[in-house]
Amino acid sequence: MSLIVQKFGGSSVANAERVFHVAHIITDTYDQGNDVIVVVSAQGDTTDDLIAKAAQINPAPSKREMDMLLSTGEQISIALLAMAIEKLGYPVISLTGPQAGFVTDSNYGKARIRRIEKERVENEIGKHNIVIVAGFQGMNRYDNITTLGRGGSDTSAVALAAAFHADLCQIFTDVDGVYTADPRIVPNAKKLDEITYDEMLELASLGANVLHNRSVEMAKKYNVNLEVVSSLERKPGTKVKEATDVEKMLIKGVARDNDVARISVVGVPDSPGVAFRLFSTLASKKIDVDIILQSIGRNDSKDISFTVSKGNVEEAVKAVESLKDILRYQSIERAEDISKVSVVGAGMQSNPGVAAKMFEALMDAGINIQMISTSEIKISVLIERKNSTRAVAAIHDAFLADLPQ
Ligand code: ASP
Ligand code: MG
User: Fold this and answer.
1) How far apart are CA 7 and CA 157, in angstroms?
2) Domains plus CATH for the chain?
3) Is 136 in the pocket of ligand 1 (CB under 6 A)?
4) Which atom of ligand 1 is nearest to the CA of 152?
5) Is 150 in the pocket of ligand 1 (CB under 6 A)?
6) Tens digits of residue pLDDT in 131-180
7) Starting at the edge strand that comes first in sequence, how are the strands of the sheet with 137-139 ordered?
8) Cβ neighbours, 10 Å, residue 241
């Protein structure tokens, strides 16, 4: 007998019909003799609707009350799904995040899971109940409800799988796996049978939008057997694991991220401490910086450019402005109409020429590169947003077009 954690996203439980469809997937798994822990997200656009509701009342509500509100979306889903499973005649119980023992820190809106107190879920499993847990939420040590950040239910599922040493953690979504590119942009994108944690991590954080990246980090850390599967059709999905057999595949995917903004600090002194001052100030404001580019110093002056997510631009610019006296820059430039396009593949570590091939594809498409950054398994370029769809298609064609379907 195995323990299986199954997670269903908001679209998979969007209406009564889908709730029953999901209930059948769960009871089939249970009928095969498995213990089943299920994690669900809020139905459809519920979380967005709740955010909109809050904005009508108070444009700047406290984060505690916001979490109190947002956690209700998942509570609706667990109760409805449990009712559907009851109706099918199976033993089931729904639990909120706090009831399921999720203890988090107090960082409302993006809380981190500290631990899972397993007793309650263990008891329910012991009674052969199917356990339905509300994703995306927990409780801090002051007994206040917290949420884990948008898309956080994936992380709830992986955390449960890790805590209970589940044999498998299946993430059901409305796509049937991880693709070499977003099929809406690249019609000939192919489904991957397998992908490594590291590749998935790069793709998730690059905007591939299949799995929440914290969930993949956690899966890697605790070696959770993860699988992305379709909730609509029953067919094999994509397995996410430590190493894949398909090493022949140089590149696993091409991703686009539109949530980027570039800030350039022009004309700062070419002297020690400038970068430190700048980035330590941004760090102290908890602004995540992604790509950094510093020009060569000329006439004792240089430029430093960096990217942040769109939501952080105002704050980042303010932070730079607060350093005017120290940095003595000439100007600050910002660009928000840009995208980051990346190729990802563990195979590039041992194969030269990937960057050249990517840049060639962009040249052939007449697309200019503004910034470049690389890691062991990823190459990213910053380009004008209006070219990003073409860029993804061109790069995908160069690397992945002739894979078998
Ligand atoms: N309902 C939350 C959201 O929409 C959490 C999730 O879907 O994973 O972000
Ligand atoms: Mg959702």
Assistant:
1) 6
2) 3-174 (3.40.1160.10), 261-334 (3.30.70.260), 338-400 (3.30.2130.10)
3) yes
4) 8
5) yes
6) 999 999 999 999 999 999 999 999 999 999 999 999 999 999 888 888 99
7) 113-116, 102-104, 137-139, 145-147
8) 18
